[in-house]
Amino acid sequence: MIAKLKGLLDETGADWAVIDVGGVGYLVHCSARTLSQLGEAGEACTVFTDLQVSENDMRLLGFADGAERDWFRLLTQVQGVGSKVALAILSALSADELQAACANGDAAMVARANGVGPKLAGRIVNELKDKAGALPGGGGTGAVAAPRGGASADAVSALENLGFKPAVAARAVALAQGELGDSAGEGELIRVALKRAAG
């Protein structure tokens, strides 16, 4: 099975990308989150993949990281969740957010995804609740949580708006706060946290 593709981004569409690997173009279906991380046409990129084979279709799915692929595989085990619905969920929620939603039984969060009604969201959360802690994501015990409210929470929000994952943003701001002290302002926290997140 194809587990990973490393090549040049040829072109992208609403929910797909073509990746040129040694002159062969692979059509890979992706979440909006993964597509946004692939870069521009002509740039080098890497995607983790999952091959789905049915009676009348063979489809290669691509993911920005292994955590997203693991969640895709778990989601598609739930009755009523096909590859399109799973990609819609992963477009709406990061692996960290999905893990938190399942661990906390937050069906409303999962229902934010296109094509996911309250009933299906409830089934997803109920079936994956026990498995949420076993998969990578930011919701595990190793995650660093920045204090809620104040300059640190605003700094975390600012980093998330710049495209950093919630767990990465929280960890970077927590490190920045440890370095600068509790009296640090939002601007200082963002400046130092950006260096930590990028490093």
Task: Summarize the structure in words.
It is a single chain. By secondary structure, this protein is an alpha+beta fold. The chain has three domains: 4-63, Nucleic acid-binding proteins (OB fold (Dihydrolipoamide Acetyltransferase, E2P)), CATH 2.40.50.140; 67-134, DNA polymerase, domain 1, CATH 1.10.150; 150-198, Helicase, Ruva Protein, domain 3, CATH 1.10.8. Helix content is 45%, strand content 19%. The chain has helices spanning 32-37, 66-75, 83-92, 95-103, 107-110, 118-128, 150-161, 166-180, 186-198, and strands at 4-12, 16-21, 24-30, 44-53, 58-63. A five-stranded mixed β-barrel has the order 1-2-3-5-4.
Radius of gyration: 18 Å
**For this structure, what is the CATH homologous superfamily of the largest domain?**
5' to 3' exonuclease, C-terminal subdomain
Low-confidence stretches: 138-149
Rounded average pLDDT: 84
Distance between the termini: 33 Å
Assign the CATH topology of the largest domain: DNA polymerase, domain 1
Number of domains: 3
In percent, how helical is the residue content?
Answer: 40-55%
The total strand number stands at 5
The CATH architecture classification of the largest domain is Orthogonal Bundle
What is the spatial order of strands in the main beta sheet? 1-2-3-5-4
Q: Describe the main β-sheet briefly.
A: 5 strands, mixed, barrel
Shape by Cα distribution: flat
Global structural class:
alpha+beta
Order of H and E elements:
EEEHEEHHHHHHHH
Query: What top-tier CATH class of the largest domain fits best?
Result: Mainly Alpha
Strand residues, percent:
15-25%
Query: How many individual helices?
Result: 9
